[in-house]
Amino acid sequence: MTASIHEDVERVILTEERIRERVAELGAAISADYGDEPVLLIAVLRGAALFVADLARTISSPVEIDFMAVSSYGSSTKSSGVVRILKDLDEGIEGRHVLVVEDILDTGLTLKYLLKNLASRKPRSLEVVTLLSKQGKQRVPIDCKYVGFDVPDEFVVGYGLDYDERYRNLPYIGVLKPEVYTDQPPSVGTSAQGDGYS
């Protein structure tokens, strides 16, 4: 990891240790709720990939993992809530306990669409766990059962969250320096916050 990646971060808001502690707490809460019942974790790519890997290892209930990838139409910096599924689930979810794993809950527009889509497939239960929830950004109400951290409405990167596909590998979560994302627009098809789909 080059020093320049760290130098682009204005300040760290969640340390590697604090993230690890909170993920373990979320895993314990999920384990207590599901007990011996199997639960299917559905990670929304790409931002939630690191989170789901760590979270799964803290859950004592039987766990399976699947992935979805979505594209949200709109500008590169804002989600319109109009969604196209790029990668669907590999298996059916009817009659199963489903837990959608998100990296960040932003406007809620895309997640609302995703939950409606998944609910139509008749799971036994459908809940959401998000690592981060941005304060004051939700445009639609989302019932998110498990929330890791509330974060300010700033541009955050690290632990799976990116800008122009960079910074996902930072072990902490930090605020990106404004000059990094205001000097030039992100590449076509990428977003300015996380995957921009939440």
Describe this structure as you would to a colleague.
The protein has 198 residues and is an alpha/beta fold. 24% of the residues lie in helices and 30% in strands. It has 5 helices and 9 strands, in the order H-E-H-E-H-E-E-E-H-E-E-E-E-H. The strands form 2 sheets. It has a 6-stranded mixed β-sheet, sandwiched between helices. The protein has a 3-stranded antiparallel β-sheet with strand order 1-9-8. Helix 2 (16-34) crosses helix 3 (49-56). It starts with a helix and ends in a 16-residue tail after the last helix.
Short descriptors:
9 strands, 3-stranded antiparallel beta sheet, 24% helix, 5 helices, 198 residues, 6-stranded mixed beta sheet, alpha/beta, disordered C terminus
Structural class: alpha/beta
Order of helices and strands: HEHEHEEEHEEEEH
Q: Which strand order spans the largest sheet, edge to edge or round the barrel?
A: 4-3-2-5-6-7
Distance between the first and last residues' Cα: 28 Å
Calculate Rg over CA atoms.
16 Å
Beta strand count: 9
Fraction of residues in H or I helices: 10-25%
Q: What do the pLDDT scores average to?
A: 87
Low-confidence stretches: 185-192, 194-198
What summary fits the major beta sheet? 6 strands, mixed
The proportion of strand residues reads: 25-35%
Total DSSP helices: 5
- The rough form would be described as globular
